[in-house]
Design goal:
Order of helices and strands: EEEEHEEEEEEEEE
Strand order of the largest sheet: 2-8-5-6-7-4-3
Helix content: under 10%
Distance between the termini: 23 Å
Strand content: over 45%
CATH topology of the largest domain: Elongation Factor Tu (Ef-tu), domain 3
Radius of gyration: 23 Å
CATH architecture of the largest domain: Beta Barrel
Length: 240
C-alpha cells in the first residue's frame, strides 16, 4: 500500500443545510440550471433564497421529490444565486414548473460537506477512561483496570479570512466533522479518500496575530459519540 502524504489533510463539515419548495415551484432547465419559480417556495416572495440558506459553489446537495425522477440525485453546485442554481451534472429539462410535482422538493446538503476556509493542520486525541478494579487480595501483582468510556478531542488550524469567516459561528454548536488524511475530489477503487468522521461540539476558537505572518485560528473540538475511520472509494456525487 502506498504511503499517505500529510499535505492532503483537511477538515470538512456538513451543516445539513435544507431548503424546501412547494409543489410545481421548481423549473429544471437545459444548461444545467435549477430555478425556484414565483409559483411557490419557502420565502415571502415565493422564491427560495439559496444564498441565504448557505449553499455555496462546489457544495454537493441531494435533490428529492422531483416528478422527473432523473433529477432525484446528488448535484454539485457550479454557481448559486437567490433563486437559481447552476450545477455540474446534467439536468433533465421539465415541461413546466416542478414538472407536475405533487409534493415538496427538498434540497439537502450532501457529503462530504464543505471545507471552510482552508484548514491546513489537524490533530486528534483518542483515549479511553480506565476504572481501577484492584482488590486487597489481588493487589500484590500491581493494579488492575477495566476499560470504561471512550473519549476523543481534536484541534484544527486555519488561516483567518476577512470575509466569509463562518467558523466564528461554530462555538458551542454541534457539527459533524471529517478529518481527512487523504482527500480525493473524485474517489475511486484505486484512489480512495481516507478520513475520520464524528459528531463534535466546538469548544473554542483561538486567534493568533503575529506582526510578520498571517493571522491564524485554532479550533478545538469535543467529540460526541464514536469517531469512525472511513474509506470512500466511490464518487461524492453518487450514493455508492
Amino acid at each position: 500500500m502506498a504511503v499517505i502524504s500529510g499535505v492532503n489533510g483537511a477538515v470538512y463539515w456538513n451543516e445539513g443545510l435544507t431548503g424546501t419548495a412547494v409543489a410545481n415551484s421548481i423549473v429544471f432547465s437545459s444548461g444545467k440550471t435549477i430555478t425556484s419559480s414565483t409559483e411557490g417556495g419557502v420565502s415571502s416572495t415565493g422564491i427560495i433564497d439559496f444564498v441565504a440558506i448557505g449553499y455555496k459553489n462546489n457544495m454537493l446537495f441531494t435533490l428529492s421529490g422531483a416528478g422527473t425522477t432523473e433529477n432525484n440525485r446528488i448535484f454539485t453546485i457550479s454557481t448559486v444565486s437567490t433563486g437559481v442554481m447552476t450545477v455540474v451534472e446534467d439536468v433533465t429539462s421539465s415541461t413546466g414548473p416542478g414538472d407536475t410535482d405533487t409534493g415538496v422538493i427538498t434540497f439537502l446538503e450532501a457529503e462530504p460537506g464543505y471545507q471552510e476556509l482552508g484548514f491546513y493542520n489537524w490533530a486528534i486525541n483518542y483515549k479511553v477512561d480506565l476504572l481501577d478494579k484492584t482488590n486487597f487480595d489481588t493487589s500484590s501483582g500491581g493494579r488492575s483496570y477495566i476499560a470504561s468510556i471512550k473519549d476523543w478531542t481534536a484541534k484544527a488550524d486555519k488561516y483567518f479570512l476577512s470575509t466569509g469567516n463562518a467558523v466564528n459561528d461554530w462555538t458551542g454548536e454541534n457539527v459533524k466533522a471529517r478529518f481527512f488524511m487523504n482527500y480525493v475530489a473524485s474517489p475511486g477503487a484505486t484512489d480512495a479518500s481516507h478520513y475520520y468522521e464524528g459528531n463534535t461540539i466546538v469548544t473554542g476558537i483561538d486567534i493568533g496575530t503575529p506582526v510578520d505572518a498571517l493571522i491564524t485560528q485554532g479550533i478545538s473540538f469535543q467529540g460526541v459519540g464514536t469517531l469512525t475511520p472511513q474509506t470512500r472509494d466511490w464518487t461524492w456525487n453518487t450514493t455508492g
